[in-house]
Design goal:
Layout: H1 2-29, H2 36-42, H3 47-53, H4 57-75, H5 86-102, H6 105-110, H7 120-147, H8 156-176, H9 182-197
Helix pairs in contact: 1-2, 1-4, 4-7, 5-9, 7-8, 8-9
Amino acid sequence: MARTQEADRVGKRRRAQIVDAALELFAARGYDATSLASVARAVEMSQPGLLHHFDGKEALLAAVLDERDQRAFTASDIESDYDVSPFERALEVAEAMVAWNAQHRDLARLGHLGAAHHPPLATAWARERTIRLRAQLAAVISRGITDGTVRPTADPEIVATFVIAGVGGLEAQWLVDEDFDMVAAMREFTQMLRRDLLVAL
């Protein structure tokens, strides 16, 4: 039993090392230009050894995209206590994530991989992530309507869609125009949502 637990710990640690290395290489070189062999070399293991942890390059990409999101969420301090309404807190987190992405351009670009010609698994990841985020945000807005902090005429699904579209759209503009101030634009966008949707208590 002890050996099994130790093997699990070693396996998780090795998997994390692979994901970290792949994230840095994908961000620096791009997914297409990064081989599994180069990732394996970065963690000083063989390619067959790497494939023991991941079925292939697409599976590794999915893990990298999850890690990229986790870093952005961690940087936005999503788990911290807050003294505002849940929807306002969600807007603060969205602002913080955009600000974090502005400091990590290569990693932000990875988050847009699933939108076009990239591997089917990355496209599936982007779809599932969008559906999950939309449902979570819609639930927050619904709670706000129930507790009286969000105006009752708001449509949770549509508002959630607007927030996601705002974040993704501003990032897309910034990725093709580095001079575009997406952080300021995001602040203005969330301020409009606050003025429109939050109920003054």
